[in-house]
Fold this protein.
Amino acid sequence: MPRSTVPPESKRTRAAHPSPELAPASAARERLAAWIAEKGLKATRQRDVIVDTFFSQTGHLSVDDLLNKVQARDANIGAATVYRTMKILTDAGLASARHFFDGQTRYEAALDRHHHDHLICTRCHAIVEFENERIEALQDAVARQHGFVVTRHKLELYGLCRACQTLQNPPR
Amino acid sequence: MPRSTVPPESKRTRAAHPSPELAPASAARERLAAWIAEKGLKATRQRDVIVDTFFSQTGHLSVDDLLNKVQARDANIGAATVYRTMKILTDAGLASARHFFDGQTRYEAALDRHHHDHLICTRCHAIVEFENERIEALQDAVARQHGFVVTRHKLELYGLCRACQTLQNPPR
DNA sequence: TTGAGATTGAGACTGATTCTCAATTTCGAT
DNA sequence: ATCGAAATTGAGAATCAGTCTCAATCTCAA
């Protein structure tokens, strides 16, 4: 069952030939340190654990998933701290929040990534990312026609991925 | 402050020259009656009030707004009934649920309406609808490239509407 | 008119997230 | 290294939209 555009092992592969997509977790940690200094925040052990855990994952991670992984490393870290830390990462531009099929916020690493949109399988919940500048251009044109200046957008395509098209179980 | 593509008075205007956009509320009531019969549901006074209230509005109505207007007509109708009724309208294809900037579900009348997407002003929350078949076609093409069969999509453009571009108050 | 079954309103409940607050930790100034 | 103001923490309470439960009520075909 496909779970993400980026297969797990690619994280290791990336070190070999520099990827334009995903900066290494260490870069994220540096950027966070700069942000923390700039904003008068403080570096804490908990934040380190959460940030390391987050950047060692790929794909779109729910807070709950992240919390589980974080607590596997340090059982004393609470949910509130994970929520708070992900908000800081988002403000710092290192993560971005997404809302797909369910009510949960999912985060993806955002450092040095292009804007992209998502294809979501309604059956297995695989999430595939894509970029299409012609769509973007048309969006801008439409907005201009209506006098809008667009600052962000959300484009999500829901359907069945290749694997799920042949299966008959009802989509969730 | 613009609130919707469809200005309030247009509802009356539509009767003169038949609009392809919005069927009259009476047609919706008939369709609902058919749906209720088909599904073995029952017609109730509460549902009539809610459906009449809903279809006498235009634009994108939150459950809370709708509840207020419903209770102005009958203070005894509870929130749960409004939630339940809007779900029925949605199942019957007479309303469709949308999720924009905040966590609230908003409903719009769906009877005989084309699919369309939305431009949303982040400052005044005006919602403008648009259709663009070239964007739709490109979406399908992208999905096909990734082996997906798309069943629905969500495209929302967020930014500042013409009126709000000249104002300096911070966007909400 | 009757009764099975649908519907209702109120309030309890849920799940995600935020808030509160006392205890703890950080870090620049000493 | 120590101090202390200010930030952070975890736990649990609070919030918020929405759903569920259940006893009382209503609908409608027979």
Q: What stands out?
A: DSSP finds seven helices and six strands in chain A.
